[in-house]
Design a protein that fits this description.
Strand order of the largest sheet: 3-20-19-15-14-11-10
CATH superfamily of the domain at 284-397 and 471-586: Gamma-glutamyltranspeptidase, small (S) subunit
Radius of gyration: 23 Å
Strand content: 15-25%
CATH architecture of the domain at 284-397 and 471-586: 4-Layer Sandwich
Structural class: alpha+beta
Shape: globular
Helix content: 25-40%
Number of strands: 21
CATH class of the domain at 284-397 and 471-586: Alpha Beta
Number of helices: 21
Distance between the termini: 42 Å
Protein backbone atom coordinates (compact mmCIF):
# COMPACT_ATOMS: atom_id res chain seq x y z
CA UNK A 1 0.00 0.00 0.00
CA UNK A 2 2.81 2.43 0.89
CA UNK A 3 4.63 1.84 -2.39
CA UNK A 4 1.40 2.12 -4.38
CA UNK A 5 0.49 5.46 -2.84
CA UNK A 6 3.96 6.88 -3.34
CA UNK A 7 3.82 5.86 -7.00
CA UNK A 8 0.43 7.49 -7.55
CA UNK A 9 1.10 10.70 -5.63
CA UNK A 10 4.45 11.11 -7.35
CA UNK A 11 3.01 10.97 -10.85
CA UNK A 12 2.97 14.28 -12.72
CA UNK A 13 -0.59 15.29 -13.49
CA UNK A 14 -0.79 18.99 -14.14
CA UNK A 15 -2.04 20.81 -17.15
CA UNK A 16 -2.12 24.52 -17.82
CA UNK A 17 -5.43 26.13 -18.74
CA UNK A 18 -6.18 29.84 -18.76
CA UNK A 19 -3.18 30.58 -16.58
CA UNK A 20 -4.25 28.13 -13.90
CA UNK A 21 -2.89 24.76 -12.94
CA UNK A 22 -5.30 21.90 -12.33
CA UNK A 23 -4.47 18.45 -11.05
CA UNK A 24 -5.61 15.57 -13.24
CA UNK A 25 -3.90 12.59 -11.61
CA UNK A 26 -5.79 9.94 -9.67
CA UNK A 27 -7.93 11.76 -7.11
CA UNK A 28 -8.45 10.26 -3.69
CA UNK A 29 -6.28 7.28 -4.61
CA UNK A 30 -6.42 6.38 -0.96
CA UNK A 31 -10.23 6.07 -0.81
CA UNK A 32 -11.28 3.23 1.45
CA UNK A 33 -8.17 3.35 3.71
CA UNK A 34 -8.46 4.76 7.23
CA UNK A 35 -9.09 8.51 7.25
CA UNK A 36 -6.28 9.32 9.69
CA UNK A 37 -3.79 7.51 7.45
CA UNK A 38 -5.01 9.47 4.44
CA UNK A 39 -4.66 12.78 6.29
CA UNK A 40 -1.13 11.88 7.25
CA UNK A 41 -0.20 11.46 3.60
CA UNK A 42 -1.89 14.57 2.22
CA UNK A 43 -1.90 17.77 4.18
CA UNK A 44 -4.82 19.84 2.99
CA UNK A 45 -6.75 19.44 -0.24
CA UNK A 46 -5.48 19.07 -3.78
CA UNK A 47 -8.31 21.22 -5.17
CA UNK A 48 -9.55 24.32 -3.40
CA UNK A 49 -13.08 25.73 -3.80
CA UNK A 50 -14.04 29.37 -3.50
CA UNK A 51 -15.25 29.86 0.09
CA UNK A 52 -17.56 32.52 1.54
CA UNK A 53 -20.21 32.93 4.22
CA UNK A 54 -22.80 35.28 2.68
CA UNK A 55 -23.44 34.04 -0.82
CA UNK A 56 -21.95 32.19 -3.78
CA UNK A 57 -22.38 32.20 -7.56
CA UNK A 58 -20.93 29.60 -9.92
CA UNK A 59 -21.39 30.12 -13.66
CA UNK A 60 -19.62 29.28 -16.90
CA UNK A 61 -18.51 32.89 -17.56
CA UNK A 62 -16.71 35.26 -15.21
CA UNK A 63 -18.68 38.34 -16.31
CA UNK A 64 -21.99 36.62 -15.55
CA UNK A 65 -20.64 35.50 -12.17
CA UNK A 66 -19.58 39.05 -11.36
CA UNK A 67 -22.91 40.72 -12.18
CA UNK A 68 -24.87 38.03 -10.31
CA UNK A 69 -22.62 38.35 -7.27
CA UNK A 70 -23.19 42.11 -7.25
CA UNK A 71 -26.93 41.45 -7.05
CA UNK A 72 -26.34 39.36 -3.90
CA UNK A 73 -24.07 42.01 -2.40
CA UNK A 74 -26.71 44.67 -3.06
CA UNK A 75 -29.29 42.70 -1.07
CA UNK A 76 -30.94 40.64 -3.80
CA UNK A 77 -31.76 36.99 -3.29
CA UNK A 78 -30.60 33.89 -5.16
CA UNK A 79 -33.47 34.09 -7.67
CA UNK A 80 -32.63 37.71 -8.50
CA UNK A 81 -29.00 36.78 -9.05
CA UNK A 82 -29.85 33.70 -11.11
CA UNK A 83 -32.11 35.61 -13.50
CA UNK A 84 -29.46 38.32 -13.86
CA UNK A 85 -26.85 35.67 -14.63
CA UNK A 86 -29.17 33.99 -17.14
CA UNK A 87 -29.60 37.14 -19.20
CA UNK A 88 -25.90 38.05 -18.92
CA UNK A 89 -24.88 34.62 -20.24
CA UNK A 90 -27.16 35.17 -23.25
CA UNK A 91 -24.79 38.01 -24.16
CA UNK A 92 -21.38 36.71 -23.12
CA UNK A 93 -21.84 33.08 -24.12
CA UNK A 94 -24.02 33.05 -27.25
CA UNK A 95 -22.95 29.53 -28.20
CA UNK A 96 -24.98 28.15 -25.28
CA UNK A 97 -26.36 30.94 -23.10
CA UNK A 98 -29.57 32.04 -24.71
CA UNK A 99 -32.86 33.83 -25.12
CA UNK A 100 -33.59 31.72 -28.20
CA UNK A 101 -33.79 28.44 -26.30
CA UNK A 102 -35.20 27.10 -23.06
CA UNK A 103 -34.45 25.19 -19.90
CA UNK A 104 -35.27 24.31 -16.32
CA UNK A 105 -34.85 26.09 -13.00
CA UNK A 106 -34.96 24.40 -9.59
CA UNK A 107 -35.59 26.65 -6.58
CA UNK A 108 -35.18 25.54 -2.97
CA UNK A 109 -35.86 28.13 -0.30
CA UNK A 110 -33.79 28.36 2.83
CA UNK A 111 -36.93 28.17 4.98
CA UNK A 112 -37.30 24.44 4.29
CA UNK A 113 -40.42 24.73 2.14
CA UNK A 114 -40.89 22.27 -0.72
CA UNK A 115 -38.59 22.91 -3.69
CA UNK A 116 -40.16 24.11 -6.92
CA UNK A 117 -39.26 23.49 -10.56
CA UNK A 118 -39.94 25.94 -13.39
CA UNK A 119 -40.17 24.23 -16.76
CA UNK A 120 -39.42 26.68 -19.56
CA UNK A 121 -38.47 24.06 -22.11
CA UNK A 122 -39.13 24.91 -25.75
CA UNK A 123 -42.31 23.63 -27.38
CA UNK A 124 -43.05 22.25 -30.84
CA UNK A 125 -44.82 24.81 -33.06
CA UNK A 126 -48.54 24.30 -33.62
CA UNK A 127 -47.87 23.29 -37.23
CA UNK A 128 -45.41 20.52 -36.24
CA UNK A 129 -46.19 16.92 -37.21
CA UNK A 130 -44.95 13.48 -36.23
CA UNK A 131 -43.29 12.80 -39.60
CA UNK A 132 -41.91 16.29 -40.31
CA UNK A 133 -38.32 15.05 -40.22
CA UNK A 134 -38.94 12.03 -42.48
CA UNK A 135 -38.96 11.74 -46.28
CA UNK A 136 -41.73 10.24 -48.40
CA UNK A 137 -40.35 6.76 -47.72
CA UNK A 138 -40.50 7.31 -43.95
CA UNK A 139 -36.75 7.62 -43.51
CA UNK A 140 -35.21 10.33 -41.33
CA UNK A 141 -33.72 13.20 -43.38
CA UNK A 142 -30.26 13.90 -42.00
CA UNK A 143 -29.83 17.37 -40.45
CA UNK A 144 -33.42 18.54 -41.13
CA UNK A 145 -34.02 18.50 -37.36
CA UNK A 146 -30.67 20.18 -36.67
CA UNK A 147 -29.65 22.86 -39.15
CA UNK A 148 -32.83 24.19 -40.74
CA UNK A 149 -35.54 26.55 -39.54
CA UNK A 150 -37.69 23.47 -38.86
CA UNK A 151 -35.22 22.58 -36.08
CA UNK A 152 -36.33 25.43 -33.81
CA UNK A 153 -38.81 25.00 -31.00
CA UNK A 154 -40.73 27.95 -29.55
CA UNK A 155 -38.24 29.62 -27.13
CA UNK A 156 -39.01 29.59 -23.42
CA UNK A 157 -36.08 31.30 -21.68
CA UNK A 158 -37.46 34.83 -21.42
CA UNK A 159 -40.81 33.65 -20.08
CA UNK A 160 -39.19 31.20 -17.66
CA UNK A 161 -36.72 33.65 -16.14
CA UNK A 162 -39.45 36.29 -15.84
CA UNK A 163 -41.76 33.81 -14.08
CA UNK A 164 -39.04 32.90 -11.56
CA UNK A 165 -38.56 36.58 -10.78
CA UNK A 166 -42.30 37.17 -10.52
CA UNK A 167 -42.79 34.27 -8.09
CA UNK A 168 -39.69 34.55 -5.93
CA UNK A 169 -37.61 37.61 -6.83
CA UNK A 170 -37.21 40.97 -5.14
CA UNK A 171 -35.89 43.01 -8.08
CA UNK A 172 -37.72 44.03 -11.25
CA UNK A 173 -37.22 42.44 -14.66
CA UNK A 174 -35.78 45.79 -15.79
CA UNK A 175 -33.13 45.61 -13.04
CA UNK A 176 -32.27 42.00 -13.87
CA UNK A 177 -31.81 42.87 -17.55
CA UNK A 178 -29.73 45.99 -17.03
CA UNK A 179 -26.27 44.32 -16.84
CA UNK A 180 -27.00 42.19 -19.93
CA UNK A 181 -28.12 45.21 -21.95
CA UNK A 182 -24.96 47.07 -20.97
CA UNK A 183 -22.76 44.09 -21.94
CA UNK A 184 -24.50 43.79 -25.29
CA UNK A 185 -24.42 47.50 -26.12
CA UNK A 186 -20.96 48.42 -24.78
CA UNK A 187 -19.45 45.02 -25.53
CA UNK A 188 -17.06 42.76 -23.67
CA UNK A 189 -13.50 41.59 -24.20
CA UNK A 190 -13.40 38.34 -26.13
CA UNK A 191 -11.68 35.36 -24.42
CA UNK A 192 -9.77 32.68 -26.32
CA UNK A 193 -12.64 30.17 -26.02
CA UNK A 194 -15.00 32.58 -27.80
CA UNK A 195 -12.68 32.87 -30.80
CA UNK A 196 -12.05 29.13 -30.95
CA UNK A 197 -15.78 28.43 -30.96
CA UNK A 198 -16.43 30.77 -33.88
CA UNK A 199 -13.60 29.22 -35.89
CA UNK A 200 -14.76 25.67 -35.18
CA UNK A 201 -18.35 26.42 -36.18
CA UNK A 202 -17.50 28.71 -39.12
CA UNK A 203 -18.80 26.43 -41.91
CA UNK A 204 -22.18 26.12 -40.23
CA UNK A 205 -22.52 29.74 -39.08
CA UNK A 206 -21.46 31.47 -42.30
CA UNK A 207 -24.36 29.90 -44.20
CA UNK A 208 -26.71 32.51 -42.73
CA UNK A 209 -26.12 36.22 -43.50
CA UNK A 210 -27.53 37.44 -40.17
CA UNK A 211 -25.27 35.04 -38.25
CA UNK A 212 -22.24 36.01 -40.32
CA UNK A 213 -22.79 39.73 -39.76
CA UNK A 214 -23.47 39.26 -36.04
CA UNK A 215 -20.54 37.03 -35.11
CA UNK A 216 -17.83 37.83 -37.67
CA UNK A 217 -16.13 41.07 -38.64
CA UNK A 218 -16.63 42.85 -41.96
CA UNK A 219 -13.56 41.15 -43.43
CA UNK A 220 -14.95 37.73 -42.46
CA UNK A 221 -12.50 37.08 -39.63
CA UNK A 222 -13.57 35.93 -36.19
CA UNK A 223 -13.31 38.27 -33.24
CA UNK A 224 -9.92 37.78 -31.61
CA UNK A 225 -8.96 37.46 -27.93
CA UNK A 226 -8.59 40.92 -26.40
CA UNK A 227 -10.96 42.60 -28.88
CA UNK A 228 -14.28 44.15 -27.82
CA UNK A 229 -17.38 42.43 -29.21
CA UNK A 230 -20.63 44.40 -29.36
CA UNK A 231 -24.16 43.15 -30.17
CA UNK A 232 -26.42 46.17 -30.90
CA UNK A 233 -29.33 44.12 -32.29
CA UNK A 234 -29.35 41.90 -29.19
CA UNK A 235 -29.12 44.98 -26.96
CA UNK A 236 -32.25 46.36 -28.65
CA UNK A 237 -34.06 43.03 -28.23
CA UNK A 238 -33.22 42.94 -24.53
CA UNK A 239 -34.24 46.59 -24.17
CA UNK A 240 -37.70 45.78 -25.57
CA UNK A 241 -38.09 43.10 -22.88
CA UNK A 242 -36.93 45.61 -20.26
CA UNK A 243 -39.44 48.21 -21.45
CA UNK A 244 -42.42 45.96 -22.18
CA UNK A 245 -41.91 42.87 -20.03
CA UNK A 246 -42.41 39.39 -21.44
CA UNK A 247 -44.60 40.86 -24.20
CA UNK A 248 -41.49 42.61 -25.48
CA UNK A 249 -40.28 39.20 -26.68
CA UNK A 250 -43.41 37.14 -27.34
CA UNK A 251 -45.39 39.93 -29.00
CA UNK A 252 -44.57 43.08 -30.95
CA UNK A 253 -41.41 43.69 -32.94
CA UNK A 254 -39.31 40.74 -31.70
CA UNK A 255 -42.12 38.27 -32.33
CA UNK A 256 -42.56 39.76 -35.80
CA UNK A 257 -38.84 39.37 -36.53
CA UNK A 258 -38.93 35.70 -35.47
CA UNK A 259 -42.05 34.97 -37.53
CA UNK A 260 -40.59 36.74 -40.59
CA UNK A 261 -37.39 34.71 -40.25
CA UNK A 262 -39.51 31.56 -40.27
CA UNK A 263 -41.57 32.58 -43.29
CA UNK A 264 -38.45 33.38 -45.34
CA UNK A 265 -37.06 29.88 -44.81
CA UNK A 266 -40.10 27.58 -44.47
CA UNK A 267 -39.94 27.45 -40.67
CA UNK A 268 -43.00 26.81 -38.51
CA UNK A 269 -42.92 29.17 -35.51
CA UNK A 270 -45.73 31.71 -35.84
CA UNK A 271 -46.59 34.87 -33.92
CA UNK A 272 -49.48 32.90 -32.38
CA UNK A 273 -47.05 30.21 -31.15
CA UNK A 274 -44.98 32.88 -29.44
CA UNK A 275 -47.95 34.69 -27.92
CA UNK A 276 -49.36 31.42 -26.56
CA UNK A 277 -46.13 30.12 -24.99
CA UNK A 278 -46.29 29.60 -21.21
CA UNK A 279 -43.74 28.13 -18.79
CA UNK A 280 -45.01 25.57 -16.27
CA UNK A 281 -44.41 25.21 -12.53
CA UNK A 282 -43.83 21.55 -11.64
CA UNK A 283 -42.98 19.44 -8.60
CA UNK A 284 -39.38 18.21 -8.80
CA UNK A 285 -38.49 14.54 -8.84
CA UNK A 286 -37.62 13.49 -5.28
CA UNK A 287 -35.51 10.59 -4.06
CA UNK A 288 -33.16 9.75 -1.22
CA UNK A 289 -29.56 8.54 -1.14
CA UNK A 290 -27.72 7.56 2.01
CA UNK A 291 -29.67 9.93 4.24
CA UNK A 292 -29.81 12.83 1.76
CA UNK A 293 -32.86 14.14 -0.10
CA UNK A 294 -32.29 14.46 -3.85
CA UNK A 295 -34.44 16.97 -5.76
CA UNK A 296 -34.05 17.22 -9.51
CA UNK A 297 -35.96 18.12 -12.65
CA UNK A 298 -39.10 16.21 -13.52
CA UNK A 299 -40.27 15.36 -17.06
CA UNK A 300 -39.99 16.55 -19.78
CA UNK A 301 -36.48 16.24 -18.42
CA UNK A 302 -35.31 12.68 -18.04
CA UNK A 303 -32.41 13.83 -15.89
CA UNK A 304 -33.91 13.88 -12.43
CA UNK A 305 -35.75 10.60 -12.92
CA UNK A 306 -32.65 8.69 -13.93
CA UNK A 307 -30.30 10.32 -11.43
CA UNK A 308 -32.63 9.08 -8.68
CA UNK A 309 -33.00 5.69 -10.39
CA UNK A 310 -29.23 5.16 -10.70
CA UNK A 311 -28.61 6.32 -7.12
CA UNK A 312 -31.31 3.89 -5.91
CA UNK A 313 -29.52 1.02 -7.66
CA UNK A 314 -26.08 2.00 -6.35
CA UNK A 315 -27.32 2.55 -2.79
CA UNK A 316 -27.26 -1.24 -2.36
CA UNK A 317 -23.48 -1.40 -2.87
CA UNK A 318 -20.59 -0.32 -0.58
CA UNK A 319 -19.39 2.38 -2.99
CA UNK A 320 -17.26 4.16 -0.39
CA UNK A 321 -15.32 0.99 0.38
CA UNK A 322 -14.92 0.21 -3.33
CA UNK A 323 -13.15 3.54 -3.81
CA UNK A 324 -13.42 6.44 -6.21
CA UNK A 325 -13.05 5.43 -9.86
CA UNK A 326 -11.87 1.95 -8.96
CA UNK A 327 -12.70 -0.87 -11.39
CA UNK A 328 -15.37 -2.16 -8.99
CA UNK A 329 -17.06 1.23 -8.66
CA UNK A 330 -16.93 2.08 -12.37
CA UNK A 331 -18.29 -1.36 -13.26
CA UNK A 332 -21.29 -0.96 -10.95
CA UNK A 333 -21.92 2.60 -12.12
CA UNK A 334 -21.81 1.57 -15.78
CA UNK A 335 -24.19 -1.36 -15.25
CA UNK A 336 -26.65 0.88 -13.40
CA UNK A 337 -26.39 3.56 -16.10
CA UNK A 338 -27.19 1.04 -18.84
CA UNK A 339 -30.41 0.01 -17.11
CA UNK A 340 -31.55 3.61 -16.62
CA UNK A 341 -30.84 4.70 -20.20
CA UNK A 342 -32.68 1.65 -21.53
CA UNK A 343 -35.75 2.73 -19.55
CA UNK A 344 -35.31 6.29 -20.81
CA UNK A 345 -35.67 5.09 -24.39
CA UNK A 346 -39.19 3.79 -23.75
CA UNK A 347 -40.86 5.66 -20.95
CA UNK A 348 -39.78 9.31 -20.84
CA UNK A 349 -41.62 12.18 -22.52
CA UNK A 350 -43.65 15.31 -21.81
CA UNK A 351 -46.13 14.40 -19.05
CA UNK A 352 -48.61 16.91 -20.49
CA UNK A 353 -48.92 14.50 -23.45
CA UNK A 354 -47.95 11.01 -22.26
CA UNK A 355 -48.12 8.99 -19.05
CA UNK A 356 -44.68 8.48 -17.49
CA UNK A 357 -44.32 5.81 -14.75
CA UNK A 358 -42.36 8.23 -12.59
CA UNK A 359 -43.24 6.65 -9.26
CA UNK A 360 -42.18 3.22 -10.51
CA UNK A 361 -38.94 4.38 -12.12
CA UNK A 362 -37.81 6.15 -8.95
CA UNK A 363 -38.94 3.52 -6.43
CA UNK A 364 -36.52 1.60 -4.21
CA UNK A 365 -38.37 -1.64 -4.99
CA UNK A 366 -37.81 -1.30 -8.73
CA UNK A 367 -34.15 -0.44 -8.11
CA UNK A 368 -33.82 -3.65 -6.10
CA UNK A 369 -35.21 -5.65 -9.03
CA UNK A 370 -32.74 -4.03 -11.40
CA UNK A 371 -29.84 -4.50 -8.97
CA UNK A 372 -30.50 -8.24 -8.90
CA UNK A 373 -29.81 -8.37 -12.66
CA UNK A 374 -26.29 -6.95 -12.24
CA UNK A 375 -23.33 -9.35 -12.14
CA UNK A 376 -20.72 -7.68 -9.88
CA UNK A 377 -17.90 -9.27 -11.86
CA UNK A 378 -19.11 -9.29 -15.45
CA UNK A 379 -20.49 -6.69 -17.87
CA UNK A 380 -23.89 -7.44 -19.30
CA UNK A 381 -24.04 -6.73 -23.05
CA UNK A 382 -26.39 -3.87 -23.87
CA UNK A 383 -28.05 -6.05 -26.50
CA UNK A 384 -29.41 -8.23 -23.69
CA UNK A 385 -30.88 -5.24 -21.82
CA UNK A 386 -34.40 -4.09 -22.59
CA UNK A 387 -36.53 -1.46 -20.86
CA UNK A 388 -37.81 -2.89 -17.59
CA UNK A 389 -41.23 -2.96 -15.95
CA UNK A 390 -41.07 -0.08 -13.46
CA UNK A 391 -44.64 -0.36 -12.17
CA UNK A 392 -47.94 1.44 -12.63
CA UNK A 393 -48.30 4.76 -14.43
CA UNK A 394 -49.49 7.87 -12.62
CA UNK A 395 -52.41 10.07 -13.70
CA UNK A 396 -25.87 18.44 -25.16
CA UNK A 397 -23.65 22.59 -25.44
CA UNK A 398 -25.76 23.79 -22.56
CA UNK A 399 -25.17 26.23 -19.73
CA UNK A 400 -25.61 25.59 -16.04
CA UNK A 401 -25.26 27.96 -13.11
CA UNK A 402 -25.82 27.65 -9.36
CA UNK A 403 -26.54 30.38 -6.81
CA UNK A 404 -26.90 30.45 -3.01
CA UNK A 405 -27.72 33.56 -0.99
CA UNK A 406 -27.22 34.58 2.66
CA UNK A 407 -30.71 33.33 3.57
CA UNK A 408 -29.90 29.83 2.36
CA UNK A 409 -32.04 30.07 -0.77
CA UNK A 410 -30.63 27.98 -3.62
CA UNK A 411 -31.14 28.04 -7.39
CA UNK A 412 -29.96 25.42 -9.84
CA UNK A 413 -30.55 26.39 -13.48
CA UNK A 414 -29.76 24.64 -16.76
CA UNK A 415 -30.73 26.06 -20.13
CA UNK A 416 -29.71 25.47 -23.72
CA UNK A 417 -30.09 26.03 -27.45
CA UNK A 418 -28.97 22.38 -27.88
CA UNK A 419 -25.87 22.26 -30.13
CA UNK A 420 -23.07 24.77 -29.79
CA UNK A 421 -24.66 27.83 -31.47
CA UNK A 422 -27.92 25.88 -31.74
CA UNK A 423 -29.20 25.74 -35.31
CA UNK A 424 -26.61 28.35 -36.30
CA UNK A 425 -29.48 30.61 -37.43
CA UNK A 426 -29.61 34.18 -36.08
CA UNK A 427 -32.94 35.98 -36.20
CA UNK A 428 -32.33 38.85 -38.60
CA UNK A 429 -32.56 42.18 -36.79
CA UNK A 430 -32.90 40.57 -33.34
CA UNK A 431 -29.31 39.42 -32.75
CA UNK A 432 -29.89 36.04 -31.10
CA UNK A 433 -29.51 32.43 -32.24
CA UNK A 434 -32.39 30.00 -32.62
CA UNK A 435 -32.29 26.64 -30.88
CA UNK A 436 -32.36 23.29 -32.67
CA UNK A 437 -34.19 21.50 -29.88
CA UNK A 438 -36.60 19.74 -32.23
CA UNK A 439 -33.79 17.19 -32.64
CA UNK A 440 -34.50 16.11 -29.06
CA UNK A 441 -37.79 14.62 -30.20
CA UNK A 442 -37.80 11.15 -31.73
CA UNK A 443 -37.65 12.00 -35.43
CA UNK A 444 -38.61 8.36 -35.84
CA UNK A 445 -39.00 5.95 -32.88
CA UNK A 446 -35.89 3.79 -32.55
CA UNK A 447 -33.63 6.13 -34.54
CA UNK A 448 -30.93 7.82 -32.39
CA UNK A 449 -30.66 11.60 -32.17
CA UNK A 450 -27.42 13.60 -32.43
CA UNK A 451 -26.31 12.36 -28.99
CA UNK A 452 -26.93 8.71 -29.84
CA UNK A 453 -29.98 8.58 -27.58
CA UNK A 454 -32.79 6.26 -28.62
CA UNK A 455 -36.34 7.58 -28.30
CA UNK A 456 -39.76 5.99 -28.54
CA UNK A 457 -43.42 6.81 -28.99
CA UNK A 458 -43.52 8.77 -25.74
CA UNK A 459 -41.20 11.37 -27.27
CA UNK A 460 -42.62 11.61 -30.79
CA UNK A 461 -43.24 15.05 -32.33
CA UNK A 462 -46.65 16.56 -31.51
CA UNK A 463 -47.88 20.18 -31.81
CA UNK A 464 -47.29 22.18 -28.63
CA UNK A 465 -45.36 19.36 -26.96
CA UNK A 466 -42.14 19.82 -25.04
CA UNK A 467 -39.28 17.63 -26.27
CA UNK A 468 -37.46 15.27 -23.90
CA UNK A 469 -34.29 16.61 -22.26
CA UNK A 470 -31.37 15.36 -20.19
CA UNK A 471 -30.90 18.65 -18.33
CA UNK A 472 -30.68 17.90 -14.63
CA UNK A 473 -30.58 20.94 -12.33
CA UNK A 474 -30.32 19.30 -8.90
CA UNK A 475 -30.42 20.35 -5.26
CA UNK A 476 -29.51 17.98 -2.42
CA UNK A 477 -30.79 18.54 1.10
CA UNK A 478 -29.36 17.15 4.30
CA UNK A 479 -31.42 17.17 7.50
CA UNK A 480 -33.97 19.40 5.77
CA UNK A 481 -31.43 22.06 4.75
CA UNK A 482 -29.95 22.85 1.36
CA UNK A 483 -26.61 21.07 1.09
CA UNK A 484 -25.50 20.75 -2.55
CA UNK A 485 -26.53 22.75 -5.65
CA UNK A 486 -25.34 21.30 -8.93
CA UNK A 487 -25.97 20.66 -12.63
CA UNK A 488 -24.13 20.55 -15.94
CA UNK A 489 -24.23 20.90 -19.71
CA UNK A 490 -23.27 17.96 -21.88
CA UNK A 491 -26.23 16.46 -23.76
CA UNK A 492 -26.76 12.82 -22.82
CA UNK A 493 -23.82 13.05 -20.42
CA UNK A 494 -25.53 15.65 -18.21
CA UNK A 495 -27.20 12.90 -16.17
CA UNK A 496 -24.02 10.97 -15.42
CA UNK A 497 -21.93 14.11 -14.83
CA UNK A 498 -24.38 15.38 -12.22
CA UNK A 499 -24.67 11.90 -10.71
CA UNK A 500 -20.91 11.64 -10.20
CA UNK A 501 -20.58 14.98 -8.43
CA UNK A 502 -23.31 13.89 -6.01
CA UNK A 503 -21.52 10.58 -5.41
CA UNK A 504 -18.13 12.26 -5.08
CA UNK A 505 -19.47 14.39 -2.24
CA UNK A 506 -21.67 11.82 -0.46
CA UNK A 507 -19.77 8.56 -1.06
CA UNK A 508 -16.20 9.80 -1.27
CA UNK A 509 -16.22 12.83 1.04
CA UNK A 510 -14.69 15.22 -1.49
CA UNK A 511 -14.81 18.98 -1.19
CA UNK A 512 -16.86 20.58 -3.95
CA UNK A 513 -13.95 21.62 -6.17
CA UNK A 514 -12.42 18.14 -6.02
CA UNK A 515 -15.83 16.61 -6.73
CA UNK A 516 -16.22 18.84 -9.80
CA UNK A 517 -12.67 18.37 -11.12
CA UNK A 518 -12.40 14.58 -10.74
CA UNK A 519 -12.25 12.44 -13.93
CA UNK A 520 -15.64 11.20 -15.15
CA UNK A 521 -17.09 8.15 -16.87
CA UNK A 522 -20.27 7.64 -18.88
CA UNK A 523 -22.40 4.81 -20.23
CA UNK A 524 -25.74 5.37 -21.99
CA UNK A 525 -26.72 1.76 -22.91
CA UNK A 526 -26.22 2.35 -26.64
CA UNK A 527 -23.54 2.49 -27.89
CA UNK A 528 -22.32 -0.28 -25.59
CA UNK A 529 -19.18 1.37 -24.26
CA UNK A 530 -17.83 3.12 -21.19
CA UNK A 531 -16.58 6.56 -22.13
CA UNK A 532 -13.80 7.84 -19.86
CA UNK A 533 -11.88 11.07 -19.42
CA UNK A 534 -8.14 11.40 -19.04
CA UNK A 535 -7.15 10.48 -15.50
CA UNK A 536 -8.57 6.94 -15.27
CA UNK A 537 -5.57 4.65 -14.86
CA UNK A 538 -4.63 2.12 -17.58
CA UNK A 539 -4.69 -0.62 -14.93
CA UNK A 540 -8.32 0.20 -14.17
CA UNK A 541 -9.18 0.17 -17.87
CA UNK A 542 -7.60 -3.28 -18.26
CA UNK A 543 -9.59 -4.63 -15.31
CA UNK A 544 -12.81 -3.27 -16.83
CA UNK A 545 -12.00 -4.81 -20.20
CA UNK A 546 -11.42 -8.19 -18.53
CA UNK A 547 -14.96 -7.91 -17.15
CA UNK A 548 -16.30 -7.53 -20.68
CA UNK A 549 -16.54 -3.74 -21.02
CA UNK A 550 -15.52 -1.79 -24.07
CA UNK A 551 -13.71 1.32 -22.79
CA UNK A 552 -13.10 4.37 -24.98
CA UNK A 553 -11.21 7.55 -24.08
CA UNK A 554 -12.86 10.75 -25.25
CA UNK A 555 -12.73 14.49 -24.64
CA UNK A 556 -13.84 16.07 -21.36
CA UNK A 557 -17.48 15.66 -20.33
CA UNK A 558 -19.69 18.40 -18.91
CA UNK A 559 -18.92 21.72 -17.29
CA UNK A 560 -20.61 21.42 -13.94
CA UNK A 561 -20.96 24.50 -11.70
CA UNK A 562 -21.66 23.53 -8.09
CA UNK A 563 -22.05 24.96 -4.60
CA UNK A 564 -21.91 23.14 -1.26
CA UNK A 565 -23.33 24.57 1.97
CA UNK A 566 -21.64 23.63 5.24
CA UNK A 567 -23.39 23.03 8.54
CA UNK A 568 -22.03 26.35 9.82
CA UNK A 569 -23.44 28.21 6.82
CA UNK A 570 -20.15 28.43 4.93
CA UNK A 571 -20.65 28.19 1.16
CA UNK A 572 -18.07 26.61 -1.14
CA UNK A 573 -18.13 27.03 -4.90
CA UNK A 574 -16.66 24.64 -7.45
CA UNK A 575 -16.22 25.91 -11.02
CA UNK A 576 -15.46 23.28 -13.64
CA UNK A 577 -11.94 23.62 -15.13
CA UNK A 578 -13.19 21.86 -18.27
CA UNK A 579 -14.62 25.21 -19.40
CA UNK A 580 -11.91 27.87 -19.29
CA UNK A 581 -14.26 30.78 -18.54
CA UNK A 582 -15.96 29.07 -15.56
CA UNK A 583 -15.82 30.86 -12.24
CA UNK A 584 -17.14 30.60 -8.70
CA UNK A 585 -17.23 33.74 -6.56
CA UNK A 586 -18.61 34.51 -3.13
CA UNK A 587 -18.57 37.18 -0.46
Amino acid sequence: MDNYLHRQIGKPGLWRRSGRFCVIALIFAFAGIPQAFGQAILEGERFHPAVANQGMVATSHTLATEVALKVLKDGGNAIDAAVTAGFALAVTQPRSGNIGGGGFMLISKGDGSDPEAIDYREKAPSAASETMFQDDQGEVVKNRSRFTHLAAGVPGTVAGLALALERHGTVSLKQALSPAIKLAREGFIVPQRFTEGLEQARDRLERWPATRSTFYKDDGSAWQPGERFRQPDLANTLQRISDQGVKGFYEGKTAQLIAEEMRRHDGLISEADLKNYRPVVRAPVHGTYRGHDIYSMSPPSSGGTHIVQILNILEGYPITESGHNSADTIHLMAEAMKLAYADRSKYLGDTDYVDVPLQGLTSKAYAKELRETIDPMRARPSGEIKPGQPGPYESPETTHFSVVDKWGNAVSNTYTINFSYGSGITVQGAGFLLNNEMDDFSAKPGVPNAYGLIGGEANKVEPGKRMLSSMSPTIVRKDGKNFLVTGSPGGSRIITTTLQVIMNVIDHGMNIQTAVSAPRIHHQWLPDEIRIEQGISPDTVQMLEKRGHKVVSRSAMGAIQSIMIGENGTVSGGADPRRSTSSAMGY
